[in-house]
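Order emerges. As here.
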Amino acid sequence: MSDPIETAIFELLTPLAPGKSISAEEAARAADPEGWHRWLSRVRTVSVGLAREGRLVITRHGKPADPNQFKGVYRLRLPLEGEILPGVLAAPESTTD
């Protein structure tokens, strides 16, 4: 993970309890505390890509949103085990052999 936004998102989400979320502003502030506002559009772009891969969930009003169609205020969280997500391109590969 070399993208500072992707790194910030996962560093903030990893220690949280399952189902807990962060705001786009929190991710932007983690990447650049002084100039966080200019990072907000990048947070959205990175979040959409991660959600399409099934690595992140974008929520609206506490429910998973389709990363291809959501509008307005959103939050970010990690996927829950077995959760079926809207707009995911492919299921994440299992790491067990």
In short: The first strand starts at residue 21 and ends at 23. The chain has a mean pLDDT of 89. The radius of gyration is 13 Å. Strands lie at 21-23, 57-60, 63-64, 75-77.
